[in-house]
Design brief:
The protein contains 15 helices and 7 strands. By secondary structure, the protein is an alpha+beta fold. Strands 3-6-2-1-4-5-7 form a 7-stranded antiparallel β-sheet, with helices on both faces. Strand 1 and strand 2 form a beta hairpin. Mean pLDDT is 80; it is low at 1-26 and 72-86.
């Protein structure tokens, strides 16, 4: 069950500010939707401490996953106390398929259909609960820049219907929360990879993310400066031997070119960068101050940093991984940076 935040409708309206007539109409519809969830499912969507577009994205997600057409609420708020309308279409389809069948066959079909739907509803409800919790724990200061894509939501729903473990539901809840807050954060390809990711690949991906560095939004990598060639198992001591990297390539999480190179212009100028969930800065060592005395020289020294690069899907899914610092890796990387004239320090 979703946690209920005890706040009045008036309080929620104050949080999302003044709206025009159309938004007021939408607000009544969303309130009716919340009432439907409370009356028929036994829980109430939280009046989120979130900007209006983010809150409406959550309502849209609930409408899609729980089979309640939000558009119908605009016509009649009294629909809040009736069953989802899509069940009427299902009933008509079954009536046509089972015309002339025995009572026993009809009863068995109905029992199987209801059991399957209830199981799927439980999975969707759990994912919604986890997504709502994730949103409530985050910052409420930034609104979503657009509304959820309906095609993406339908694809997401098809994946949720086949989840079995609590861990997979947790990850999909995090993905949904991220997409609600920032639509476009997770591609359909990423959803496919996440749905198909077994525990073995999942563990390897966690290991990879723990030592990954965000060089820029398009470059997230495991730097191997000072570690050597990954084709010769230089990452084996950190749980990523050559064979493990092959599994991550097959899963579509990293590129097949093991040793790629990228420059670090922002780090060369002293800007912090993320490494395994923490932030670090590079400073020129005392011994190299005279040699690296200009921004251009420092940028040139960081112009070809080797590493294993995450794919677009890998970059997206990295956002839902709870990363931890691997001190042995940080120390080895610090040695590599020191060899080219930089101190690696916590920001």
């Amino acid at each position: 069950m979703l946690y209920v935040l005890h706040a009045t409708e008036a309080t929620r309206r104050r949080r999302i500010g003044l709206m025009g007539m159309n938004n007021q109409h939408d607000d009544r519809a969303l309130f009716a939707l919340r009432e439907f969830f409370r009356n028929s499912l036994g829980f109430q969507l939280p009046p989120l401490p979130a900007p209006p577009r983010t809150a409406k994205n959550l309502d849209k997600a609930c409408s899609a996953l729980l089979d309640f057409p939000i558009a119908s609420l605009h016509a009649n708020a009294g629909l809040a106390n009736r069953a989802p309308l899509r069940s009427e279409a299902v009933t008509d389809a079954m009536r046509r398929q089972l015309r002339g069948a025995s009572n026993e066959k009809v009863a068995a079909a109905l029992e199987g259909l209801v059991a399957d739907y209830v199981e799927k509803r439980d999975r969707r409800t759990r994912v919604l609960e986890l997504a709502a919790q994730e949103i409530m724990q985050g910052s409420a200061s930034i609104d979503a820049d657009r509304f959820l894509d309906e095609d993406w939501m339908a694809f997401f729903k098809s994946k949720v219907d086949h989840l079995a473990t609590d861990e997979s539901k947790l990850f999909f809840g995090k993905v949904l929360a991220g997409e609600i807050k920032r639509p476009g954060s997770f591609s359909k390809r990423s959803l496919n990879i996440l749905a198909e990711m077994g525990p073995g690949v999942g563990h390897l991906f966690d290991t990879l993310c723990n030592i990954s560095t965000v060089v820029s939004t398009r470059h997230v990598r495991v730097m191997t400066l000072g570690l050597g060639d990954v084709g010769e198992n230089s990452l084996e001591e950190f749980g990523l031997p050559f064979e493990a990297l092959n599994h991550l390539i097959e899963a579509g999480l990293i590129f097949s070119e093991y040793n790629t190179y990228v420059d670090m212009p922002h780090a060369a100028l002293g800007h912090p960068f993320e490494l395994g969930g923490d932030f670090y800065c590079l400073h020129v060592t005392e011994e190299r101050q005279a040699e690296l005395d200009t921004p251009g020289k420092r940028a040139a020294a960081l112009g070809a940093v080797p590493g294993v690069t995450l794919s677009a899907a890998g970059r997206e899914l990295r956002a839902i991984v709870a990363k931890r610092t691997v001190h042995a890796y940080v120390q080895r990387l610090a040695t590599g940076f020191a060899e080219i004239g930089f101190d690696l320090q916590r920001a």
